Amino acid sequence: MLRVVSVAVPVPALGCLSYTVPDSLPVPGVGARVLVPLGARVLTGCVVEQEVEATSGQTGALKPLIGLLDESPFLPADVVRLAVWVSSYYACGIGEAVSAAMPPKALLASERRAQLTGAGRVALTSRRRKAHYELLAALADGASHSLSQLERTVATGSRGALH
């Protein structure tokens, strides 16, 4: 069975978005903060509904959650319900209403990420400056890495290659 949650993201006039929950993550509770992809960005969203039924045509288009920020709900379910009501009564986006209910800095900023491309794989085998080689080697596992994670991984002298 496909595990799907409805998530509010802090984007004006945008309704709830549905995301699948990977098997590696528990199903987050209502009010939990999650990291979700939206276009080229990664945003912090808030779960407003668990176990949403996805239509058969929709399931192929759903993207998975990237991560779970809270083991237990960050916002009480009553506050989430109030935010849903506020969004419908005042005709604002659900994400805006949920954001207004959260304390300052509860929503993480978008995070820039890097991933090794085909050209990067070629560059990894060619002669490069040590800084570039260390950066490309850190990306060689094929996964997407945040820039802050890469800064911690590569040597201090190689950090200039990131920017």
UniProtKB/TrEMBL annotation:
Protein name stated in the entry: Primosomal protein N' 3' DNA-binding domain-containing protein
UniProt keyword list: ATP-binding, DNA-binding, Nucleotide-binding
GO BP term (any one): double-strand break repair
Keyword Nucleotidyltransferase belongs to the record: no
Species this chain originates from: marine metagenome
GO molecular function: 3'-5' DNA helicase activity; ATP binding; DNA binding
Residue ranges occupied by any Primosomal protein N' 3' DNA-binding domain in the UniProt entry: 6-103
InterPro entries xref list: PriA_3primeBD, PriA_3primeBD_sf
